[in-house]
Amino acid sequence: MSAMKPETRAFVYGISGVPVLLFVAMLACYGRGTGEALGLLADRSGILLTGAPGFRGFGGGFSANVLMSVAAIVVSVATGALLCIGTIANMRLIRLISLGVVNLLRNTPWLIALYAMLYLLPFYVPVFGTVIPFSPFVKAVVGLSLPVTANVAEVLRGGVDAIPSGQWETARALGYRKGQILRYVVIPQAVPLIIPNMMTVFATLFIGSSLAVVTGTSDVLSVANTITASDGSQYATAVQLYVLLLFFLFAFPIATLARRLERQIREKS
Amino acid sequence: MTLDLSWLADPLYQTWLLRGIGMTVSMCICAIALMFVIGIMGAALIYFRLPMLETITTIVVELLRNTPPLVQLFVLYFTLSELGLSVRNLATGQQIPVFSGFTCMVLSLALYNGAIAVEIIRSGLHAVPYATVEAALSLGYSRPRIFWHIQLPIALRLSTVPMTNNIVSLIKTSSQAAFVAVADVMYYATQITLENFRNLEVMLTVWVIYLLLASVASTICGRIGHALRIPGYGV
Questions:
Q1: Number of CB atoms found within 10 A of residue A15's CB
Q2: The dihedral formed by the CA atoms of B117, B118, B124 and B125, expressed in degrees to the nearest 10
């Protein structure tokens, strides 16, 4: 075991140990009834994973969480990049406003952002005669993107700050403009530094997507609650343990990969 | 769109919000204290590479760090309420469940952020120069005493910045308490919206309250971190 890289070992431990741990927790909880509980979980896997029995469609359950996270990643990377450019702008006013927005969003609990979006956003927006509906899914994506935008902006700014100021000065001496320096000198060097931190943010976002249950989408937790309500509350623990395992299996590899990239960067410098 | 904040003048709603803030603050303080205990114990177990215990701690830490705190809370709540432990109040003779929503919430917060604290303290321990350990060994300190008197204080002082982030994250996560019927700010906010239907205004007020709580916490932690910094050592 000692020959392995530290995060490979942690990965092997985690990916094999956590299912065992959760199984032991289930055994401790149900004793002889564990078999029944497992059978129920196998029956309900389809609805928990895809929102419909028999693995049809991707509109609900765990796949809805994944879709929601991906959409929120796209939105928050775009807005986060804008916000980051704002924090390093030349104009003092823009800088101050952007920093204020970053701090405001960073200190916002995710749950509050989701609730606020639930009530702040209208149910539909008429644009040139066509009505664009804001489904709970869209509201959840917007609500999740808000705090993540600030995290993305922070990560991007951290990457830009990590580039030594000599690079800026040299490029300026060669006659580059600020935009050009960013595009040709700073960003190519900052991207490898940014990627691991960005992946950590995405893993956090993915974990946070569990909170979307408050917006009324058919995400994995609301499906889990429905199952608990229909099949009896004695299986609540089993269903929740299953959801825990789903989230873990998805978020853990991302987090491990991020840690590995981070170590590689540290060893290079 | 106009915001109607006249309900804030109602003394009943004011007491509700204040009571909720008090609940949130006391919950956070309990959870932060427990978080440090868990973080230090976990970091020590991993750092000293105790056989078996190290593996189990690593697995538990990875589980807690990579799963939603909300689901962890539900698991704790359902499992612990199943156990049905209760204590007898000696004064009134009532049976009080040991694992109330409050206990579950404190435990859940302390476990989730404690797992992050384990990693923070562990990397702090690795940042302690080994020469200090050798110096202590030559002075005749035993290994546990070196850990407690030398390595741990330095590690904690080196990791005040990530610990501040962790504490702010704990305060933000504490808004989930309303899910298990703990009467915190969110719970009373929901209560108020049920009475006056001013959903948006109430949520914005709660947003401001949480912003203030988080800012106060990060200011206090920043002060503590500044007072505890090791002069001339990196940070």
A1: 16
A2: 150
- List strand residue ranges (DSSP E) for chain A, in order: 124-127, 130-133
What is the percent of chain B where pLDDT is above 70?
A: 91
B71, B82, B206: residue with CB nearest A29: B82
Domain map (residue ranges) of chain A: 6-268
B88, containing H or E segment: strand B86-88
Q: Are strands A124-127 and A130-133 parallel, antiparallel or unpaired?
A: antiparallel
Q: Do A116 and B173 touch (CB under 8 A)?
A: no
Q: What ipTM was assigned to the predicted interfaces of this complex?
A: 0.84
Substitution target from A65, A120, A207, A241 for chain B, most B beta carbons within 10 A: A207
> The pTM is what?
0.87
Q: Cα(A186)–Cα(A179) distance, rounded to whole angstroms?
A: 10
The letter for the amino acid at A240 is Q
Q: Is residue B81 part of a domain?
A: yes
Domain topology for A6-268: MetI-like fold (1.10.3720)
> Is residue B68, in this structure, part of any structural domain at all?
yes
Please tell me the total count of domains within chain B: 1
The answer to whether residue B9 sits within a structural domain is no
* Domain of residue B42, CATH code: 1.10.3720.10
- A21 in contact with B, Cβ within 8 Å: yes
* Cα–Cα distance list, B4 to B37, B60, B84, B117, B214 (Å): 45, 47, 45, 42, 25
Distances (CA, A) of B138 to A24, A229, B128: 45, 64, 17
Residue B90 in any domain: the answer is yes
| Each residue's pLDDT tens digit, B72-110 | 998 888 877 766 666 666 666 666 666 778 888 999 999
